[in-house]
Amino acid sequence: METGSHLQRMSGHCALIAERLQLDPDSVRAASRLHDVGMSSFGPAVHQRRPLSGRERDELTQHPSIGHVMLSGSGIALLDVAADIALTHHERYDGRGYPRGLRADAIPLAGRIAAVADTFDALTTARPYRPATSIDRAADTLRAERGRQFDPQVVDAFLEELDAAAAVLCRHPEEAADDTALLQAPLLPLHVAAAILAISPSRLRRWADDGRIESVRTAGGHRRFPSDAVRELAQARGVHATVHPLTPPNTPLPLLARCLRTHGMRITIAAAAAVYRDDAPGWFASPSATPALADFTETLAEACARGEYAPALAAHHDLMGIAAAGGAVLLERHTFLQRFGHFAMRTLVKAGGKPEEVAGMRRLLTALQETGLRDADQRAQAR
């Protein structure tokens, strides 16, 4: 389970490395705090303090890609760095990481930094199923993985700041977990709960003192608010967050249109097959999905040719609705679009796609993904 203390420590370690490597430590610190934003798409079961099952581990390997989609396409430099970190902090220097199996300098430097910082914090933090590793032993682990899991220059930079890293650990100790049922539920820090409710933290404190909303205290004395209680109160108050949507490109993507017309169903079938393991196919890989997938691909190709993308967004909406009705969960639906984008992008690049068309395709895929997430939210609220 990711905690606020973990984010403070991990981002602090990233800043130490960045400064040693003559990068902007504040930017790397801020961007690295979003490294696991993709984890927010998973249910509370995978955030519990326990070893994960094999199936849960398999599902969680998607969180870098999900985080990358969530952060990409804003045009904001800091979020672009955060997107790189989200996507690549589980890659390995030797190419045996995930999700893309990148190696060495193909991994953005910020991602290589985050990998070292995240691992060091994981090693030096206790879990219910294992004690914390000492700082010296964690440092030995990093040394042993130089050139294998980690970039040697990043490891060396971090080890030169080991005393400072120890100070970061002391400043941000892990909060002890309480055994009460309330504390076992997902909890939100004060500032997050206040932001959701669109009120000031001081007002939320008063509400908690008056009994208007439940709250608990951590071992360190910090207030935490059950997420269900916060959402119920927000709904009762009519508070809804507004996300500025990313619009599709405003120009045609002619080469992508040709690629989809020529190879569209091959791309779609490959993407659908890649969603599942061989022994557990789901809706996207079933024969009943073929007509809907064909309609989506054909409409997308026509939209790219014309530069009019409203029909593509509508087709994606219809496809995801049919998929949901067919039993495909949100992770399947997201993964299909991610795989579809991967294969389509590879086809476009092989066909000689220019940078502006590649960028346009990325923007289109992000717009489709946002549409899918909004639709999923609306379906959940309707239930």
Detailed description of the structure:
GO terms for molecular function: DNA binding. The chain is mainly alpha-helical and 383 residues long. The protein has three domains: 4-171, Hypothetical protein af1432 (Orthogonal Bundle), CATH 1.10.3210; 181-237, Multidrug-efflux Transporter Regulator, Chain: A, Domain 2; 254-382. Helices cover 61% and strands 2% of the residues. It has a three-stranded antiparallel beta sheet. A hairpin with a 5-residue loop joins β2 and β3. α1 (4-20) runs antiparallel to α2, α1 runs antiparallel to α9 (162-171) and α6 packs across α7.
Summary?
The chain is an all-alpha fold and 383 residues long.
Output the CATH class name of the largest domain: Mainly Alpha
**Roughly how many Å apart are the termini?**
28 Å
Number of domains: 3
Strand line-up across the major sheet: 1-3-2
Q: What is the H level of CATH, i.e. the homologous superfamily of the largest domain?
A: Hypothetical protein af1432
State the secondary-structure class: mainly alpha
Number of helices: 18
Please summarize the sheet with the most strands.
3 strands, antiparallel
CATH architecture of the largest domain: Orthogonal Bundle
What is the 3D form? globular
Based on CA atoms alone, the radius of gyration comes out at: 22 Å
Give a count of the beta strands, DSSP E runs of length 2 or more.
3
GO molecular function: DNA binding
Protein name: HD domain-containing protein
Organism: Solirubrobacter ginsenosidimutans
InterPro entries: Cyclic_di-GMP/3'3'-cGAMP_PDE, DNA-bd_dom_put_sf, HD/PDEase_dom, HD_GYP_dom, HTH_17, SinI_DNA-bd
